[in-house]
Amino acid sequence: MSFYGLVDGTEASLKKYLGSLSGVDQVGADARAAMLATRSIKTTSKRWAIDTAITMVDLTTLEGADTPGKVKALCTKAVRPDPTDSTVPSVGAVCVYNDMVEIARTHLDLIGGQHVGVAAVSTAFPSGRASMAVKIQDTKDAVDVGASEIDMVIDRGAFLSGRYIEVFDEIVKIREVCGTKAHLKVIFETGELVTYDNVRKASFLAMAAGADFIKTSTGKVAPAATAPVVLVMLEAVRDFYAMTQVRIGVKPAGGIRNTKDAIKQLVLVNETAGPEWLKPSLFRIGASALLNDLLMQRMKMDDGYYASPQYVTID
């Protein structure tokens, strides 16, 4: 099965499809990412860039010590990042573990945050080491209690061993569980994929299997969302669109901590995939600390000085 008719679901057709992909010029990718990192956004556009980045944040807490109170506080911040300024937009989604999905969804609805999604990390996050039955149930549990987005992790061991059909079938099955209720983000853990060629191959495999988004990493393994890796993934969604006329989203996660990092991501998107991807339905940033810096930079534009962290709520 393929969502776009690119493969027929057999191992032979999948290998032929992946084998037809062009390789990645590593030196060229590194050089282009470095060049784009020097680009800046005009001062007159900085407010737009900051607000756009805020709408793209998946405000995340994925700690063993997470509590219902912490998740509720995060949801409140997601809807109204700055309680003193109603012009600050809401974030794209709140990202939590499965057992916190219902708490997050209920609290968001209670405080007028129906427009903010709940993303659940699924399929034995972050390792991906579990049976298919467990992964399916994990996903079903999250969708049933209100997750509108599922962030699944691929089996990197299967991928690196060349068992591509196993990875493909797993994504297809999880996509079927999501149905029309939830978008599917597929996490590669690019720090473990080693090469840019593998990142490109994983990107096309996931998109053909039905991913709505491709995501760099869990945030638990370094390196995570490096600029060249994000560049390779953005080129993949651009090329996939040229083939299918379907736009797939990209989500970098891990290591994007300040406004400068976020703006570099927006430049990468605009210059690689195109301005059509500059919206939260096609680009997200998985982060926890980033939002506070965006808020402090926004305050600086209004007041002329960089506010102390005490002026924003602790995540």
Overall shape: it is globular
CATH superfamily: Aldolase class I
Q: What is the terminal separation in angstroms?
A: 42 Å
* Helix fraction bin: 40-55%
Structural class per helix/strand content? alpha/beta
CATH class: Alpha Beta
State the CATH topology: TIM Barrel
Mean pLDDT: 93
Provide the CATH architecture: Alpha-Beta Barrel
Question: Which stretches are low in confidence, meaning pLDDT under 50 for 5 or more residues running?
Answer: none
**Beta-strand residue fraction:** 5-15%
One letter per element, helices H and strands E, the order comes to HHHEHEHEHEHHEHHEHEHEH
The number of distinct structural domains comes to 1
Specify Rg, calculated over alpha carbons.
19 Å
**How many extended strands?**
8
Strand order of the largest sheet: 7-6-5-4-3-2-1-8
Largest sheet: 8 strands, parallel
How many helices? 13
Keywords: Lyase, Schiff base
Catalytic activity: 2-deoxy-D-ribose 5-phosphate = D-glyceraldehyde 3-phosphate + acetaldehyde
EC number: 4.1.2.4
InterPro entries: Aldolase_TIM, DeoC, DeoC/FbaB/LacD_aldolase
